[in-house]
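Predict the 3D structure for this chain.
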Amino acid sequence: MNIVKPKGATTSPKVLGRGTGTGKGCTAGKGTKGQNSRAGGGTRLGFEGGQMPLFRRVARRGFSNHPFKKRFVTLDVKALNVFKDGDTVNRESLAAAGLIRPRAHAKSVPIKILGSGTIKKKLTVAVDKVTSGAADKIRAAGGTIVSAESNARKEV
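Done. Predicted structure below.
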């Protein structure tokens, strides 16, 4: 059985500016005169007709930490249950298991383990940061934390 589109479902696009007899000639649907009827006409983004634009009216004060923010690839403890007992959890094994994207693996973005969920496997965790709650759960399951920075200290 062939699926057929209903009659009138597809129409050819209207050709603009090809003479007055075409139905969209003369002004080509742009109206008469004015800034937007001209070639290259229109205003830039944020332009408010000469009124002081909003982005210039609102004061910018204070300090923003945004340029200095550290970004982490975060994983919950419960995600580590995909590994077998005795496995080492590091950047390569996480990428191989599909828990982090290859882009994060290639860029060496720091990896941080969060304490959400439970873990049942005895693992050796070697990542950049581990929260104190996650460290407690990993140790309670019989695992160890290897990395120097992730010694169960509070997150930054």
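Strands lie at 73-76, 88-89, 111-114, 124-125, 129-130, 144-145.
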